[in-house]
Amino acid sequence: MKMKAIARFGKEFGSYRMVEVPYPTCGPEDIILEIKAAAICGADMKHWRVDNGSDEFNSIRGHEFAGEIVQVGEKVTDWKVGQRVVSDNSAHVCGVCPACEQGDFLCCEEKVNLGLDNNTWGGGFAKYCKIPGEILRIHKHAIWEIPENVKYEEAAVLDPICNAYKAVAQQSHLLPGQDCVVFGTGPLGLFSVQIAKLMGAVNIVMVGLDEDVPVRFPVAKELGATHCVNGSKEDVVKRCTEICGRDNLGLVVECSGANIALKQAIEMLRPNGEIVRVGMGFKPLEFSINDITSWNKSIIGHMAYDSTSWRNAIRLLESGQIKVQPLITHRLGLSEYEKGFDAMAAKEAIKVIFTYDFDDIED
C-alpha cells in the first residue's frame, strides 16, 4: 500500500511536493505511528514557495506530530499498540558525544530528525511514520505517552512548548518579580509569554509588527502579555523601557530571528540581564555587541529541549496551565496543505493542524 505525503526535494532551501510513498515497514525494534495530528512549524516555512529546481528526494516533512501506535516490532517491550504518543522528532544520534552523554540529544552534531532534512523514516505530513528502534535504544524518551485529557492536536505542538520551557525556565535565570520582553509573535513567542507568566514575571511585553496586530496581539494578551508593542510604528527600546523601567528587565526572549530585534534587545536590557536567542536569522550582524561586555549582558544560544523540558511541559499542559487552543487558528486536511502554508505565510494563522484525509492507495 501507498500513502500521500508532503516531501522536500534537493539540498538547498525549497521544493515541497505532495507525493505517493510506500507505507513504512516495521523492523524488530521499530514502532509505527498512525498520525492523528501534525502542525506546521516556523522552520517549515523557510522552504515554502521556493523552488530549488531539484528532483532529488530528500525527506518526508512534518516534525511536530502526535499519533497512535498501530504496530510494534517483536523486540519492543516498552510500548504497545493503541497507545497515544507524541514524538520529540529525534530519530538518529551518535550516543557518545558530550551532548548525548548528558541527554541533550537535539544538540548531537550527528542528529537526524523525523520530518526534517535527510531523514529516511518519515514525518507527520503523511498517514504513518516510523519511530526507529535505534533511537529508542539510546533515547527512551524519544516518544512520550499523551495524557488522557490532552488532545492529539494539543500534543502535536509540544515541540514549541518544550522549546519555550527550556529557553525561559531552564536556560534563563528569570526571577519572580522581574520583567520579560518577548520578540516574535509565533508559537515560540506565545508559549514563552506563558512560561514567563508561570515563572512570576510582572510585566510581559510582546513585540511584533503591523501584521501581528489583528490576530496575534489579541492572543498574546489572552495568554498573559501585559503589553504589546508594534515595532512597525513604535520606538521599541523606548517603549519597553517605559513599561519595565531601567532596573527590572532581566530577560529578553528573542524568537523572531531578526537582527534588529537582537540589537534592540541588547540596548533595552539592564546590566547583568540575559537574552535567550531562540529565533534564527540568516544575515550577518551589522552592529556592535560591545554592550554585552561593557554591562555584563549575556546572549544565550538556544536549541530545542531535553527530557526535563518534555516531562514538565506535558504536566503543565495536562494541568491546564499551558493553553494551546487559542493558538490553533486553522484545522485542515492534509490535501489542503497549500492553504495552510499560505495562511502561515500571510500571518493569518498562528498554528495550523493537519489531519490525514486521503483514501488508501493500492500498489
TrEMBL record:
<feature type="domain" description="Alcohol dehydrogenase-like N-terminal">
    <location>
        <begin position="27"/>
        <end position="134"/>
    </location>
</feature>
<keyword id="KW-0479">Metal-binding</keyword>
<protein>
    <submittedName>
        <fullName>D-arabitol-phosphate dehydrogenase</fullName>
        <ecNumber>1.1.1.301</ecNumber>
    </submittedName>
</protein>
<dbReference type="InterPro" id="IPR013154">
    <property type="entry name" value="ADH-like_N"/>
</dbReference>
<comment type="similarity">
    <text>Belongs to the zinc-containing alcohol dehydrogenase family.</text>
</comment>
<dbReference type="InterPro" id="IPR002328">
    <property type="entry name" value="ADH_Zn_CS"/>
</dbReference>
<feature type="domain" description="Alcohol dehydrogenase-like C-terminal">
    <location>
        <begin position="187"/>
        <end position="318"/>
    </location>
</feature>
<dbReference type="InterPro" id="IPR011032">
    <property type="entry name" value="GroES-like_sf"/>
</dbReference>
<dbReference type="InterPro" id="IPR036291">
    <property type="entry name" value="NAD(P)-bd_dom_sf"/>
</dbReference>
<dbReference type="GO" id="GO:0008270">
    <property type="term" value="F:zinc ion binding"/>
</dbReference>
<keyword id="KW-0862">Zinc</keyword>
<dbReference type="Pfam" id="PF00107">
    <property type="entry name" value="ADH_zinc_N"/>
</dbReference>
<keyword id="KW-0560">Oxidoreductase</keyword>
<dbReference type="Pfam" id="PF08240">
    <property type="entry name" value="ADH_N"/>
</dbReference>
<dbReference type="InterPro" id="IPR050129">
    <property type="entry name" value="Zn_alcohol_dh"/>
</dbReference>
<dbReference type="InterPro" id="IPR013149">
    <property type="entry name" value="ADH-like_C"/>
</dbReference>
<dbReference type="GO" id="GO:0016491">
    <property type="term" value="F:oxidoreductase activity"/>
</dbReference>
